[in-house]
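Hi all, long-time lurker, first post. I run a small reading group and we've been trying to get comfortable going from sequence to structure in the token notation. Rather than ask abstract questions, I figured I'd post a concrete chain and ask someone more experienced to write out its structure so we can walk through it together at our next meeting. Sequence below, copied exactly:
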Amino acid sequence: MKTKSFNIVMIGFIAFMFQSCTHDIYVDPQASDKESYDNADAVNGAKLFNNFEHVDAGWPADALGWPLASAAADPTITIADIASPPTSTIPGQKNRSFYTCSGCHAYDGLGREGGYITKTLYSVNSTTGVVTATAGTPTVAASKLKECRSWDAKDIFNAIKNVGGRAIDPTLTVNGVSTPAGNAHPDFSKILTDDKIWDLVKWIKEGAIYNENNDLYTMTTTGTYNTTLTPANPVATVVYSNLGGTDGDAVAGDAFYVAKCMVCHGNGGRGTSVASGPSGWTANNTNKVQVGDFVRTRTPEAIHKIISGQFGAIPWMAATPITKVEMKNLLKALSNTTKYPSGAITPFKN
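-- Answer (accepted) --
Happy to help. Here is the structure in token form:
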């Protein structure tokens, strides 16, 4: 009798628990965020940071190679118009900086205090001295993006998405100083789908290779970033030295260059028939910068573009998988001005 009573009690208890579970199943509200973050692509985030509207950053393309208009988070937004409005005299350039992260936040994540300390909002006519706003140049951010690495992933996601930020304006053609709204954070909820925003979040938290305590290079700056249309006095400067830090291995860096870079950039970074060179390309092969020179004078940008690749070259420079140690070694190797000289590239010299 005791056993029978005990069984009846246990069956009733189990039934009660089962019924309770069906009504009170706990769902972790952060589970979907964690899954989205885990599935994100940090390298694609680096591509978006560098050039948000390029098809190589994960967009389906139309017949002309632009992202499909319907691919934006808001299908009424035409990405091609944001990056290159009809009035632009330089296709793909006039508005890009206003909607590409690198345009305001800098490749080193230091905003106004890093390599972008020299980025000006104006040009000065050498003959007349007239100061003119530089079209397509927003004010560099005062905040330091690299500090966001310690944030919670969802907080970074919300800061990027920023519903209610600056409206998408295909006619925005002047700098952020003369158009105050141009300095506000863009409303990326209209442009980037959530999966692309998560890619950016993952790049910020894990993918970016930043200079910590001069372990990659030493940066020396003078002056301050100028937020007005008056030429700075003294003019701000930035110089990079000690590339590769104290423990970079130049021999290993040379080997990495041979294995990963030389096929396009050639012996000593002088260029090949495959590639036009890393910067300043023109059809007659003038005004081009050799790889060593580019890395030594625009170090943070070079680091980022090794990670993300470089769009627009023929062929496009693919993203290069690289660790921080390998980056140190490569920088140390490229600091050698004899092996990787400065000056104009001799066309297609191997």
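A couple of things your group might point at:
DSSP finds 13 helices and four strands in the chain.
The mean pLDDT is 80.
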